[in-house]
């Protein structure tokens, strides 16, 4: 059985999907982009600020499922420009302990929703 996870502390979905779905002890988050949940505005000042907003949105979704980044076992990062990887990785890495960081892939894509520069989704377990 699946349970839909929602929070007002992360952006509302912009399509036919939910912020996250909990199935048993496994949480599947939808991809988060840098939308400020309070204003609905995109946060695109620079790649670090954008990535911080993405991670804060994911943090809120994890919290709504009573989890933290320590529960994350897999992350998928989609970026529009591989030249931004070092800065994105720096911000992303600050949310994890190197010894227990999740598995991950980082993929450059041609385009992301709302023409953002980074989108991240995660899988977590309790």
From TrEMBL:
CDD domains: YjgF_YER057c_UK114_family. It holds the Pfam family Ribonuc_L-PSP. InterPro entries: RidA, RutC-like_sf, YjgF/YER057c/UK114. It comes from the Bacteria. Belongs to the RutC family. This is RidA family protein. The lineage of its organism: Bacteria, Pseudomonadati, Bacteroidota, Flavobacteriia, Flavobacteriales.
């Amino acid at each position: 059985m699946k349970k839909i996870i929602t929070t007002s502390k992360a952006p509302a979905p912009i399509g036919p999907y939910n912020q996250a779905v909990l199935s048993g002890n496994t949480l599947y988050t939808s991809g988060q982009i840098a939308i400020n949940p309070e204003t609905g505005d995109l946060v695109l000042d620079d790649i670090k600020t954008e990535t911080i907003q993405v991670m804060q949105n994911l943090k809120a979704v994890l919290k709504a499922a009573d989890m933290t980044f320590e529960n994350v076992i897999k992350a998928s990062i989609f970026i529009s420009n591989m030249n931004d990887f070092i800065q994105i990785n720096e911000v992303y890495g600050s949310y994890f302990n190197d010894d227990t960081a999740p598995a991950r892939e980082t993929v450059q894509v041609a385009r992301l929703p709302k023409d953002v520069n980074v989108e991240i989704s995660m899988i977590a377990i309790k």
